[in-house]
Design a protein that fits this description.
Length: 330
């Protein structure tokens, strides 16, 4: 904007004076004044209100002090440049913390979705369409499901606890089927204590309170012991848990050779882009998470509060339409 250009021009005279005393500005990337003016330009291009107000206030103060120290030689100018870079680094550190938090939230959300799909598939495979004791079904789709979800998120499908709890889920259903005959009940007499112990030790992970744990286990122990004695508690046929709909709600034609897609794919985590807003301004955002397949790509603005989630194809459309710009491209 005009104020940003005016601020940038305020550094022109002190910078010109410093360059005359140090020609390394033109060929050394680590030159202090060169790094400072590059950082000033980048931040003026990418920072949006209300954060631009703080930036311009700081830059205005530095420009004034550089003009006041004009006769002090390049040493004073370089010291002020370093002071400005320190302020930029502090802001970048704050942004990095926000980026980490947003990345963790995005990853946790994706991990929870995958875990939920895994748990629902396991439970439906074990109980859907089968006649089982009502109390046992309530336990499996209630507290036991929460344990499975917690374990699945923590370990994934290759975790030892997940495999053990999956087998315990299957064992509860097999126990009911096996107790339908006298021979089956005899066979499962020695197995029941191990099954109860396995359920109990697993539930400790989510319920450490012994009294609460006993309340969770009581109906399961009662119904399994009743089955072992030949009793027939109330049975129901559970239809299965609802399966989350596919993420695709329609169809999409993807052109793999689309140049815009290739430009998006070339983006690296931490790289900056600019999104055009409804008020025809631009908001700078950093890439945090690169989505795989149809998974969304996640960007966060400089405050760490504004988050943009778009798929690869959506980003390509925005780039083609001028709504998205890649900072530093070209």
């Amino acid at each position: 904007d005009e104020e940003g250009i005016w601020l940038l021009n305020r550094f022109r005279l002190p910078l010109f004076h410093a360059v005359l005393g140090d020609y390394s500005f033109f060929f050394a990337r680590q030159n202090v004044s060169r790094r400072f003016i590059n950082a000033v330009t980048l931040h003026l291009l990418t920072t949006r209100e209300p954060f631009a107000r703080d930036l311009k206030f700081v830059l205005g103060g530095l420009a004034t002090r550089m003009h006041e120290a004009f006769e002090g030689g390049s040493g004073k100018f370089n010291a002020l440049c370093l002071e400005g870079q320190t302020w930029f680094a502090t802001q970048q550190q704050r942004l990095h913390k926000a980026e980490v938090k947003v990345r963790e939230l995005a990853e946790n959300k994706q991990r929870k979705q995958q875990a939920e799909e895994r748990v629902v598939a396991l439970i439906n495979r074990c109980i859907a369409g089968k006649s089982l004791p009502h109390l046992l079904v309530d336990f499996i789709v209630g507290d036991w499901r929460q344990l499975l979800l917690w374990t699945s998120m923590k370990e994934g499908e290759q975790g030892l606890n997940w495999k053990r709890q999956s087998r315990l889920t299957e064992s509860m259903v097999e126990f009911v089927a096996g107790c339908q005959t006298p021979d089956g009940r005899t066979q499962y007499q020695k197995f029941l204590p191990s099954l109860i112990k396995g359920l109990h030790s697993s539930l400790v992970d989510i319920q450490e309170n012994r009294d609460r744990l006993a309340l969770l286990m009581e109906p399961v122990e009662l119904v399994l012991n009743a089955m072992l004695m030949g009793a027939m508690p109330d049975f129901i046929v559970h239809p299965g848990l609802p399966v989350a709909p596919s993420r695709a709600t329609g169809f999409e034609v993807t052109v793999e050779s689309n140049p815009a897609m290739e430009r998006i794919r070339a983006l690296q985590a931490g790289q900056w882009v600019r999104f055009r807003t409804q008020d025809r301004q631009f908001e700078a955002c950093a890439l945090i998470v690169k989505g795989e397949g149809d998974q969304p790509w996640t960007f966060v603005n400089q405050s760490g509060q504004g988050v943009v989630n778009k798929t690869l194809s959506q980003l390509a459309v925005l780039l083609t339409g001028g709504v998205l710009e890649i900072v530093g491209e070209g």
